[in-house]
Amino acid sequence: xxxxxxxxxxxxxxxxxxxxxxxxxxxxxxxxxxxxxxxxxxxxxxxxxxxxxxxxxxxxxxxxxxxxxxxxxxxxxxxxxxxxxxxxxxxxxxxxxxxxxxxxxxxxxxxxxxxxxxxxxxxxxxxxxxxxxxxxxxxxxxxxxxxxxxxxxxxxxxxxxxxxxxxxxxxxxxxxxxxxxxxxxxxxxxxxxxxxxxxxxxxxxxxxxxxxxxxxxxxxxxxxxxxxxxxxxxxxxxxxxxxxxxxxxxxxxxxxxxxxxxxxxxxxxxxxxxxxxxxxxxxxxxxxxxxxxxxxxxxxxxxxxxxxxxxxxxxxxxxxxxxxxxxxxxxxxxxxxxxxxxxxxxxxxxxxxxxxxxxxxxxxxxxxxxxxxxxxxxxxxxxxxxxxxxxxxxxxxxxxxxxxxxxxxxxxxxxxxxxx
Length: 420
Ligand code: HAM
What we know:
Elements: H1 15-31, E1 35-36, E2 42-44, H2 45-52, H3 57-61, E3 64-67, E4 73-76, H4 81-90, E5 100-109, E6 121-130, H5 135-152, E7 158-163, H6 170-182, H7 190-198, H8 209-214, H9 227-242, E8 248-249, E9 261-268, E10 277-283, H10 287-290, E11 298-304, H11 305-314, E12 326-331, H12 334-349, E13 353-356, H13 363-372, E14 377-381, H14 383-388, E15 390-395, E16 401-405, H15 409-419
Parallel strand pairs: 1-5, 7-8, 12-13, 12-14
Antiparallel strand pairs: 2-4, 3-4, 5-6, 6-11, 7-9, 9-10, 10-11, 14-15, 15-16
Helix pairs in contact: 1-5, 5-9, 12-15
Histidyl-adenosine monophosphate (HAM) is lined by residues 79, 81, 110, 112, 118-119, 122, 124, 126, 128, 256-257, 277-282, 300-302, 304, 306-307.
Subcellular location: Cytoplasm
Family: Belongs to the class-II aminoacyl-tRNA synthetase family.
Binding site for L-histidine: 79-81, 110, 124, 128, 255, 259-260
């Protein structure tokens, strides 16, 4: 049996890398005032159809959707924004008129063609701010994404920024785009020909060569923003400038999910190649309403943790795990093992990492194992020690050995460790 295509195990030897990334992220979240939310991995399919949009690739091609035994259509979450907004509504968080800042870390599922940096089960860290309409919130969210990368030491990232307008100005732009591409229909790929009347903005970020060529000279959204959207976009840029955060205005950045309005952004790490977006996000002022709640502004982003890990490894930025001080108990004979077993629990109770043999090794084999585990102390209990009521405690660093009564061993090692 093998893991399903596009899914992967994170083995015990690798988990420290994830702990490290998540530790840095959680630390930054705490400083920016975000609280964690954990939503179910499975939701009603309709949530994503309405939230993400039923003409998007994610909804039409990539969702893991099935009918459960109660005949309901359910879907493994392809992203967490729609679920976070559902939870916000279900628990009437809007009732207190406050800004809610939430973050999440977890698995997402998209049925796409797996390749380096693209998986069917992948992990995101993401955050959502609900109830804040000020462009200051947009800038704060982008600054926070940059701070996470900064804390991790990651360099050579590109921040791409755009405004995709709102329901007032986007329709006119959409019309212009359709007019522009109608004359070039035969140059577009099958997907884009289908998108032309449903979701023409997506043609702009199609990676197909023909579509790229066809979109040269296409009208740019930034020329069609209404005064309000233009003003907001200028404000976001101004706040980013004030923090010295550099960005490229990219009028082709349209993002793949339908809920976005105004600010859209991506942070890319070009050496990752085709899957270079490590972070994507934007504002979604219509989403809460779309899902059935009161009109509420929202903004957020998500970082793909597999891609972040690839980037950190490319720049050699993951610190090696700290070697843990540990104790090994080498015991031979049933009574000695029973005595060692008790001492092991005492040591663990004092917070000291302790192991003993579970495979019936000889005393020599156990000593070897103690060395392999880089134990700082080895407690040796054989028949002689049982008679004396004291074990030989060997300091593996200095090679010195001392007899210590069974009852005092845990205390003795705790003191030695404390002093070392
Ligand atoms: P997204 O751009 O679809 O946005 O995904 C965000 C990030 O997740 C991407 O930039 C990428 O790093 C990672 N990602 C996406 N798909 C895959 C995949 N198949 N394999 C590996 N990594 C992947 C969202 O999901 C939005 N919910 C972000 C957001 C939050 N917008 C507002 N709030």
